[in-house]
């Protein structure tokens, strides 16, 4: 719901991942831009509950609401969707206050895109080798770690989960082109191998500093 820059980019990305997407916007030009990209595109007013019902929103698995800078319109759309029985509602918030109201309304997920991207960039700048920063609780890091002092040991021998409270989710052997996901615990590591570890930020950074 809402095919502006954020909404259309998200919709296109979902299509690339094999998801069937229905797009709705009140702006005719945006609807025309989305045609040929999405499975179905309609021009309609999301604040009109009857219009959403006629389009079958009550039968959708998930609805993403991205209605520009209008907090009022966003909240009206959310209320309409909830009254139609939509269980999974994700919303682009335009301010901290908007985000708080959305969470009070019980939406599944609310995000301020600019803040989210800024945090990602800040963490990548400050932590070399960082692959992803996940805002779960205190924050979870996914980071590449190059094997040096651990060479000659297996993952089982290192016991990283108990020692550092992190989990190794992939290993790329020295000279290999791709990562091996869910690595075997008894494979011996060599200097230059790359591990992908996930854990809470403080625990992952202990490995870097240690």
Give the helices and strands, then pairings.
Blueprint: H1 5-16, E1 22-25, H2 28-34, E2 40-43, H3 49-54, E3 63-65, H4 71-83, E4 89-92, H5 96-105, E5 109-111, H6 113-126, E6 130-134, E7 140-146, H7 155-158, H8 160-164, E8 167-172, E9 180-181, E10 194-200, H9 201-209
Parallel strand pairs: 1-2, 3-4, 4-5
Antiparallel strand pairs: 6-7, 7-10, 8-9, 8-10
Helix pairs in contact: 4-5
Folded structure, characterized:
- With 210 residues, the protein is α/β, with parallel strands linked by helices.
- The protein folds into 2 domains: 5-111, 3-Layer(aba) Sandwich (Rossmann fold); 117-209, Regulator of K+ conductance, C-terminal domain (Alpha-Beta Plaits, 2-Layer Sandwich).
- The protein is built from 9 helices and 10 strands.
- Helix 4 packs parallel to helix 5.
